[in-house]
Amino acid sequence: MLLSGSPLPPLRFDTLSAALWHLEGRPGPWLTVVRGRDERTMTGAQVLDLARRWRTAAQDAGLKPGDRAIVLMPNTDSFVGAFMGAVLAGAAAVPLAYPGSLSNRADAVARVQPLVETAKPSVVLTTPDLAEGWSVPVVTAPAPEAVGSDAVVSPDDLAFLQFTSGSMGRPKGAAITHRAVMTCVTSMGTALSMSGDDVGVSWLPLYHDMGLVGGLLCPVVFGFPLHLMRPGDFILHPARWLQRAAAVGVTVAAAPDFAWRLAARRHRKPPGDLSTWRIALDGAEPVHRSTLDAFSSTFGPFGFPSTALRPSYGLAENTLGVCIHDPDSPAADLVWDGRALPSVGAPLPGVKVRIMAEGRLVGEDEQGEIQVQSGSLMQGYFQNAAATSAVLRQGWLCTGDLGVISGGQLFVTGRIKDLVIQNGVKFHPYDIERVAADAAQATPNGATAFARPSGSGEELVVVVEVPARRRQGVERRVKGALVENLGVRVDQILVVAPGALPRTTSGKIRRPAAIAMFRDATAGAPNA
Hints:
The protein is an alpha/beta fold. The chain contains 15 helices and 30 strands. The strands form eight sheets. Strands 1, 19, 20, 21, 23, 24 and 25 form a seven-stranded antiparallel β-sheet that branches. A five-stranded mixed β-sheet has the order 12-13-14-15-18. 52% of the residues are buried. The mean pLDDT is 90.
């Protein structure tokens, strides 16, 4: 089965550099950086000047067109300036996850070394706290003033490397060209009717594709103001995101499924008027009907439009967006293996999606691998020809995700490598994890489920994060909830401390590492 989006309109800009230059003439405040209760506002011209001062400092340190520049910064104007500065220098920016804690600076630098070795940067742009331990020049501040000129780049030059989350293995750097990012942003913005009248509010990490492309670069290209928060501020105080959204009249925001669920669960007091919110994208991980219903019912009384919360599907290898649900084309949930799956919509403009199984194009309502073709596909995985050839085949991206096309819309059913088979029955771990986390009163992404070989075939294991003070009865509650809600029998449950599960930089559970953790934790135990 194959779906094609509408024709892609002409690109607004040929390169990301040209889009950045456009900031200079944008009237009024453009970037507001929010940290707790404090905020700092900058015009587009001030942001562009900051970027050029970072470009000057990076060039003074040896950065040349065609090089790579690591950007290791928190979610502030420093990241924005350093990232844009690298692009204006004609280099490929390489955003990496800034550590949540600087208690051990050497470990923080050591954790990103495998990514640095892959990227082979000429410079590292980071904070003074992380200036030590690098094998290349380090820049920790912009130059006092911008000197020289921006580099001349072509649409086929690399704009940035986007390291994938690594939820199923070691992260790889998706090489994104200027043409690809401009194509992706134009496609998303066209589908969502973005304009300078919009207002964005984002706490998403800028080193992740949803935060970088959706949260930062869409406002750059379409010229609307952005209110930028830190991820930690949302995790600790979800209400602050909603309060900021209400205060500034948000129209565009995006978050993973767990965030919408967390915001509804932690709701304590009125956030303010949310009636201006027209686009609330739910993506980056499986979208659950219960999440959509919980958020809409919780915040509907405060004006949140029922049509705003829109499931979406995208991935770093396509720069970002592939499909976004359109409320003007409603679709009933697809009941698949006993689960109600929300539609993630039809392909965006210029995007094609097909479902393949065993080398053939499957029919409607048949499951297979989701494959994508568009002008925003990555050039390949940087310095990794084998991994590139495994996923890019004859112009199609083999995503590793499972899906079904029904009624002209895409429904994501799971991942090929994530399937759990118990007594001959296939289960998707996302639903198991959601029910387990709810039963254990853990955070929305505080559980993982996987199968491991046993003498009788495979056994199902669930690992759940629960504080020591609340562990009594957890195993019984989790097992009971899974049987009652999904008909799933769990063979083993491991209860660990909050934060113990291995995660990617975007917060997804790293399943291979979680399996290894379980194996180590149960080594030598009876029946382990």
